[in-house]
Write a structure and sequence with these properties.
Elements: H1 3-43, H2 51-56, H3 60-73, H4 82-117, H5 121-147
Length: about 150
């Protein structure tokens, strides 16, 4: 496989893994939000619109994967960059995707808690933000590593 092909494969892997994590994470949180809203409606309580913030939180990881994808694609034509970019794409995409998946799981719990108690919104967002930080770290450290490939 040529260097350019491995670079493109790494870029695709990064975006694909990050996007898959976002899909799982938003799916988990959305399912919990729908269930929480159903409980609210059944109890005659207003359904909190704020739950959508928990549902949407894992989407940003797809953006981090896209940013890395563009940087990786910019390495095509750089000699001997194929293997490092491929490895960087796979592992940074995996870290970012897992962050999204587990952020969605935490978001699901936040949906249930917020709908039941109507309290703690800021605390729940802070917890989701900590999980998000893993993805930000993975992206930044991957950018640093990719910057060393010249």
């Amino acid at each position: 496989m040529s260097d350019s092909a491995m670079i493109v494969a790494g870029a695709i892997a990064c975006l694909g893994l990050a996007g898959a994590g976002s899909a799982f994470g938003t799916g988990f949180a959305a399912s919990a939000a729908v269930g929480a809203w159903k409980k609210c409606y059944a109890a005659g309580k207003p359904a909190p619109f704020l739950l959508l913030s928990f549902v949407g939180a894992p989407i940003t990881q797809t953006l981090y994967g896209m940013i890395l994808m563009f940087i990786m694609l910019g390495k095509t034509g750089v000699a001997n960059a194929g293997v490092p970019v491929l490895i960087c794409g796979i592992f940074s995409g995996l870290a970012i995707g897992l962050s999204a998946l587990f952020q969605g799981r935490a978001g699901a719990a936040a949906c249930d808690a917020q709908a039941e108690t109507n309290q703690g919104f800021t605390n729940y967002l802070a917890a989701l933000g900590i999980v998000e930080t893993v993805a930000i770290f993975a992206m930044v450290f991957a950018l640093i590593a990719l910057g060393k490939i010249a």
